[in-house]
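request received
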Amino acid sequence: MNMENIHQVLSSFERALVAVDRVAAEKILAEYGPGFDPVNFVDTVIVQTLDNIGNAWAKGDVSLSQVYMSGKICESLVNSIMPSGGMKRIEHPPMAIAVLEDMHMLGKRIVYSVLKSKGYDIIDYSSMKTGELVGRVIRDGIRILLLSVLMLPSALHIKEVRKRLDNAGHEVKIIVGGAPFNFDAELWRETGADAMGRSASQAVEIINRLYERPQ
Amino acid sequence: MTVKTMTSMERVMTALQFKEPDRVPLFLLLTMHGARELGMSIRDYFSSGENVALGQMMLLKKYGHDCVYPFFYAPVEVEARGGEVIYRDDGPPNSGEPIIKKYDDIMKLKQVSVKDSPPLVKVLKAIELLKSEAGDQVPIIGVVMSPFSVPVMQMGFDRYIELMYENEAYFNKLMEINEEFCVEWANAQLDAGAAAICYFDPVSSTSIIPRSKYLETGFKIAKRTIGRIKGPTATHMASGRCFEITGDLAETGTAAVGVSVDEDLSILKSRCRGRLSIIGNLNGIEMRRWSAEKARDTVRQAIVDAGAGGGFILSDNHGEIPFQVPEEVLFSITEAVEQFGYYPLNK
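response:
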């Protein structure tokens, strides 16, 4: 498939996802998928399109529901075309993701889906309180911890996570995201985090930067 | 020195009619700060309407702003249906495990009788007490979660978005149940003495759904619901963007919109002029660490951007000022309004 065709596929696929049109997305897969090796289709079309949509979210050009539903449609497409165990795997230090102290999982689910689709092996801790989270991070030997929060008090509690992990002598990079960080550009530093991401694709960039891995 | 010539009620009502009152109205939407005034934990404070009424009157006296805000916490409506509320010492009570775990649970939801629900009755009590204290001098702002936005707490954000896109029948059923409740709850607050209802509808913001989806869903729901609320409403986006849907919001019958700090106040003002008043848009999260100078500059700029011609109430951009915002910052904001907020405004 030449570059012009790839651009056409990318553009149609993105339109289908942003319209949350699962049928159209499946049609594109049926039409163009056979021209690709499955791993190549995931990398060239699905991951690239999710990146584009994630970047559009960070700029305010698409809505959160479109980002979330795009990820969900892509998850089922990937499952339908990839042989079991056929996903590309990226080597990286042990990594986990959690929501700190509330039940709002949406942001975490989006980041988790994108990382999985890109081949990262990430443990999902769901929602945890500070003490439980610190214990799990140490026990599982986690070196990259992604934390999602919805509310300001939860964001401020990341300081305590950092403090307890430091006191335990456990080295871990903490990457934070969620609404409070979007409204206060300085807040992530105050929490003792190593970085803040506004979208799933930014989270990937940060992970690669912190571990000096070319994307 | 400039002198106030209007009561808070007159000031707010004049602004909402797109006229210039004596000065720009200021809504400090403080909820948990009342607990601090009373030296109570947040949990104890919200355990009775008497506490909240007293806390609100103390905050009104302390800051001299232009409303009282007997909003307890967002999940009070979920609590009324038997849902869990999780208290914390440093922030608003949050909703616990969703009450709708599978779509079939929607069919089992029953209408809640407002007057038989203890969590709602304590809110009504606070409003009644405030009405007896503040009379018609200061507007009492009641609060409802919109039928379209409350499912985030009823079933979780991710599963609600899936419902919205993937199961129209269950979605419509849930909206039908929530609309009935919302109308009854809003009108009960108006009957108790609220002057207006803040209709929180962040899911309708274009931060969450595109306008096309809003027109199919949140817009129609708001139009039906607001049409049955027997008093003025202000729709609040709780930090979400609304520029693209301001015309639609005006069509729902709402009088004002609470706007995000992510959008330009002057552009919003020109787009809404004469159709929709604007409430906003001080950054509540950042406000926590504002200096007096930063507070003064930010307030002055907001007034310059949106104050002319009325139709503007200065407030935070989320509809609730975080508990971590210190009183020094709140005083700086009120002082800046006194300094820059009197009409005619300096350019």
